[in-house]
Design brief:
With about 375 residues, the protein is α/β, with parallel strands linked by helices. It has two domains: about 70 residues, no CATH class; about 240 residues, no CATH class. It contains two helices and 22 strands. It has a 17-stranded parallel sheet that branches. The protein has a five-stranded antiparallel sheet with strand order 1-2-3-4-22.
Length: about 375
């Protein structure tokens, strides 16, 4: 009886070991299969991404590529040392996308490039920080954006949180090195007419008239626009490009409300270039910058400039290009156009509305053949 029991136990152990061996084999095979699939996924993503960057390089070299491809057309691609299926499909539109798909075994992965045709096609491009000033009575109500936003991965979550239910567009992200801003290319200094200092006294108006030429070029040491004073830039005969070393907005020492105004008219391009980081002496209240009719107005600098508006700033048909710059707006800033900044500090009532430009500003098209105007830029991707 004991021998029979022992035999049953031994047989049971053998069966158990056999079953465990099968389970181990199944587990190992499953892990090996999962590992294989994971490796295929990694390879597919890497291949699609590599092909995407290669395609981006081609787009930067020849901006007519997209124009010559039908919307939705499938393009088979070749990549060295890759034998799987690889193809791209272009979705054309105001903001195009290129979907590059790689197939490895049973795994299919798509790498999507979002491509912008003009870097001024966002309501807000912000690469450094967005700061909500919550000090004082009532805290800070923040910012509302009517249009798309472009930011970096590091700032993305913060921007999404700040603009929750306060944005009508999409929020894109891309590493800073992949956000392609064109170089500013100004005409040589000797082509500018030297104008010295311009002071517009309180309550008066001064008009800068364009000339019968391709572009009117003026250089000022200082432009001072006093309380309730107005600078008018008439572009009816040509584009106007103004370089200024220092611009003083409002009368220094005046404590009550001010309303310095800069108005661009005439239907062409008005452009003011701030030459150094201290170019703008901030106003206290009520700054108005307005481009009337079909006129586009560009305020731009490559320096670390700061524009500070305490209350009630109104900028209409204005494109503020300052990738290294800052805006500080305490209350009620409204901008209609496009804003490119490093940092934006706001408290209450800031609203940004995207308005597309009619055509590119000439300072970004490049007069030096070596200063290439990059019309296309990677602005984000998935996965």
């Amino acid at each position: 009886m004991k021998k029979g029991s022992m035999l049953v136990v031994i047989l049971g152990i053998i069966v158990l070991i056999f079953l465990l061996s099968i389970l181990i084999i199944v587990f190992v095979n499953q892990n090996l299969n999962n590992y294989k699939i994971k490796q295929q996924e990694i390879l597919a993503i890497d291949v699609a991404r590599s092909a995407g960057y290669a395609m981006l390089d081609q787009l930067l070299e020849d901006e007519t590529i997209i124009e010559n491809i039908n919307d939705g057309q499938r393009i088979n691609l070749n990549l060295s040392n890759f034998s799987g299926e690889l193809y791209a499909i272009i979705d054309k539109g105001y903001r195009s996308s290129v979907n590059i798909t790689a197939v490895v075994g049973n795994v299919q992965k798509t790498f999507k490039l979002y491509i912008v045709r003009d870097f001024l096609s966002f309501a807000l491009t912000i690469t450094g920080d967005v700061i909500i000033d919550s000090k004082g009575k009532g805290g800070g109500t923040g910012i509302t954006v009517f249009g798309d936003v472009l930011t970096t991965p590091e700032l993305y979550d913060k921007v999404v949180q700040l603009l929750s239910n306060k944005s009508t567009g999409e929020i894109y992200k891309a590493p800073l090195e992949d956000i392609v801003f064109p170089a500013v290319t100004l005409p040589p200094d000797e082509q500018f007419s030297e104008m010295g200092d311009l002071t517009i006294p309180q309550g008066t108006s001064y008009t800068i008239y364009s000339e019968d030429s391709t572009i009117t070029l003026l250089s000022f040491d200082t432009i001072t626009i006093g309380k309730n004073a107005e600078l008018i830039i008439d572009t009816s005969k040509s584009d106007v490009l103004i370089k200024v070393a220092t611009m003083v907005l409002g009368d220094p020492g005046v404590k009550d409300n001010e309303q310095p105004e800069i108005i661009a008219t005439g239907g062409n391009k008005a452009m003011i270039y701030f030459e150094n980081s201290n170019s703008i002496d901030p106003t206290k209240n009520n700054l108005v910058v307005n481009a009337e009719g079909e006129t586009d107005f560009l305020l731009f600098s490559e320096e670390e400039i700061t524009l500070e508006i305490k209350n009630n700033g109104n900028l209409e048909n204005v494109y503020f290009f300052a990738p290294n710059g800052h805006i500080i707006a305490k209350n009620n800033l409204t901008l209609k156009g496009s804003l490119i900044l490093k940092t934006l500090t706001v408290k209450n009532g800031t609203e940004i509305y995207f308005i597309p430009i009619s055509s590119s500003f000439p300072v970004f098209e490049g007069q030096d053949p070596s200063a290439k105007y990059k019309k296309y830029a990677l602005i984000g991707w998935s996965p």
